[in-house]
Amino acid sequence: MPxxxxxxxIARQFGANFVGTAPEVTSPQGxxxxxxxxxxxxxxxxxxxxxxxxxxxxxxxxxLRVHLGIYGAWDxxxxxxxxxxxxxxxxxxxHLRYGQTGEYTRPDGSRLRDAVLRGAVLLDRDAEDSVASxxxxxxxxxxxxxxxxxxxxTEAWPPAPRGQVRVRLLNETVCADLRGPTAxxxxxxxxxxxxxxxxxxxxxxxxxxAEKHRFVERAGKKRTPIGLVLMxxxxxxxxxxxxxxxxxxxxELDPHLPANTLSERVLGDxxxxxxxxxxxxxxxxxxxxxxxxxxxDYLSALRDRGERHWVYKREGMxxxxxxxxxxxxxxxxxxxxxxxxxxx
Length: 344
Known about the structure:
29% of the residues lie in helices and 19% in strands. The protein is an alpha+beta fold.
């Protein structure tokens, strides 16, 4: 399931490409036809993320709420303006043509394909998070053709929907297709507030002493293990399985400790670390949880998930710090990775 950084990146892409325009809104699949009819042709006035949920505001006080869940993903195509706060590794371009072959083209028409194959433009091999496809991996969208293809320049606009597209937003230059979300609905402002009231604080929106205190207070009342509390979206918004495991390792905390046994300082440090890691994830596009990586080590971390985490997906392997084998267990119906040596 996409974690908080991915949803913030999606919201920023909508901010750069759709806010201020009045997109055509359709439901090629048909399951969102009624909602699409309500939003069609209205100006998008805001795009924001709170934790794992995204909210798009349209004129007339209508909001589109999307929760990607495990299988959802957004695919962007067209002349994508990249929000300046997020990175495309290896290029300074902020306005790219993205064809369905997966080839980027600069505004002057020159190909980036060769640069990608040389490794100058770094695309995570697991498709964890990219500019053009965000959410559940769409490896075919990121696949680099063996030979140059002109289809990115000659295919019809807009591109034909691929697969079961729940909702399509289309303006003159950019197309955004949503597939497989857990939630996709039109809400009133009051309904949006009710959803937000159920969510915990999100430091990407307000990293303030008040929001930090709200997290510490909510977490400090929980008798459940801190490994479960960090995944509770009503306590803190956006943390998923990867960040949970990595944050607990970085804090040297046993995941099984009841949250209410932890001091306010320890809980406050967890909030600060979440804010730190979240900002990296939003900017870079990958969940890099090992600090201080430079040079080739940093480039390897961008390419390979295994090189950017301390414990996640490293079960049975020796801890990078103490040499104890990383343990995999189930907690809250999710896989938990941790080091009994560093976290006991």
